[in-house]
Amino acid sequence: MSNETIKLLLVDDHHMFMDGIYAILKDISHIDIVGTANNGNQALKIAKSSALDLLITDIEMPEMDGIQLSKSIKKTLPNIKVIVVSSHSNVQTIDKLRKLQIDGYLLKNTGKIELLNAINKVYKGEKYFSEEILRVYNQSLFGTNKAEKEKVKLSPRELEVLKCIVQEQNTQEIAESLNISVNTVDTHRKNLMRKIGAKNVVGLTKYAIQQGIIA
Amino acid sequence: MSNETIKLLLVDDHHMFMDGIYAILKDISHIDIVGTANNGNQALKIAKSSALDLLITDIEMPEMDGIQLSKSIKKTLPNIKVIVVSSHSNVQTIDKLRKLQIDGYLLKNTGKIELLNAINKVYKGEKYFSEEILRVYNQSLFGTNKAEKEKVKLSPRELEVLKCIVQEQNTQEIAESLNISVNTVDTHRKNLMRKIGAKNVVGLTKYAIQQGIIA
DNA sequence: TCATACATCACCCAAAAGGGTGATATTGGC
DNA sequence: GCCAATATCACCCTTTTGGGTGATGTATGA
């Protein structure tokens, strides 16, 4: 088992970062980097046409991000292991990836040794998560604000309204944007505040930015 | 000149990333990585005790960030060239660094070749900025919102009020927090909106978060 | 000294936000 | 079929925001 070569695909739009991982791994005899991709779409194509064992992907990427990519991979090519690497750790992201049965989650501040360790473990079928990730996730179970404790589920329409709010539109303008009544927008805004636990639109704005809803 | 060795210090709290740059540069004969640091304070100590030519630093770091580090370096050790590397590019950051007479600014999605190119140019005394950085900066000169065009100067009191607003306090609460009249808080809020070019408190919130005023 | 920015406050007024309740129609899951 | 969530709208009411104007004292710098 450990004599086999691990066929690996790197996915990250940060060339410098990818060059870095590449440089770290290229001298490891049992690891074979079969390709690199700058975004999820590209990665999917390569994954479908190659005999991959493992995929290492960033989360923040243009076109198709790491979460969507992971979802696609796990659905269509469940034999490929997936390790996610990101600069930041927030509870919602960790939770999403956990549900997708991701195999590993590393922060970009983890070192060479931990990276190799993670790759080997995941290849053998184990899971690997950075300590920081586990800490953040466990802490979240005792989180202070509503948005952290109970994962907030916003409906598609609520998300649309939220996006408009963050664009500094007032209720009247949002109603026109979405072709609905002012009263309806009012209702959505109030429901958003209740769900998110915000006191006013400022709270909604902060939530949206933290969740990357506006990006 | 080009036969000399470039003595270089890497500063980044992302170990994996640093390992990456390290791996890229370690085989380059005329580059000597004299050390690595995880934060600005550590970097300053090393810089003071070594004969450095060039420092490559991330912006986002704990304790002392890349901007503070650059400021200290340029003040106390002006002979050391500084290249900043970051994942993101926003106008305010670019502008701050420009004023600090930084020598280079790269995004993390720049490749190996560009990195080497930048190091060589900067070592020779030239400046090097990623295309993306130049694009963002030039665009900002014709930016849409006031906050980008003219750098906004907020008075200390206005900053206090802004912080309270971002904490989801309403005018009444802010007045109590700062022991002033509700009318005065109103005035400050209105002046903030005028200066920043925001349509409402949502705009103020976004500005505050972008500027890191709440961090 | 004069101008400017700052911090403070007041008043008027319109528009918007927020809090509560209730109603209807549609949908998807169990 | 029933239940829950969603999306839609209406009406009540109070509080808050936002826009405009003007006034006063203080401090600072040209």
Would you write up a description of this structure?
2 copies of one chain form a homodimer. The first copy, chain A, is of the alpha/beta class and 215 residues long. Chain A has 2 domains: 6-141, Rossmann fold (3-Layer(aba) Sandwich), CATH 3.40.50; 149-210, Winged helix-like DNA-binding domain superfamily/Winged helix DNA-binding domain (Arc Repressor Mutant, subunit A, Orthogonal Bundle), CATH 1.10.10. Helix content of chain A is 52%, strand content 14%. Chain A has a 6-stranded parallel sheet, sandwiched between helices. In chain A, helix 4 (91-99) links the parallel strand 4 (81-86) and strand 5. Chain A binds a DNA duplex (30 and 30 nucleotides) through residues 155-158, 170-172, 180-184, 186-190, 193, 199-201.
Short description:
2 copies of one chain form a homodimer. Chain A is of the alpha/beta class and 215 residues long.
Keywords, please?
six-stranded parallel β-sheet, Arc Repressor Mutant, subunit A, 2 domains, Rossmann fold, 6 strands, 11 helices, alpha/beta, homodimer, DNA-binding, elongated, 215 residues
Chain-wise SSE layout:
2 copies of one chain form a homodimer.
Chain A: E1 6-11, H1 15-25, E2 31-37, H2 40-49, E3 54-58, H3 66-76, E4 81-86, H4 91-99, E5 104-107, H5 112-123, E6 128-129, H6 131-140, H7 146-149, H8 156-166, H9 171-178, H10 182-196, H11 201-210
Parallel strand pairs in A: 1-2, 1-3, 3-4, 4-5, 5-6
The structure holds a DNA duplex (30 and 30 nucleotides).
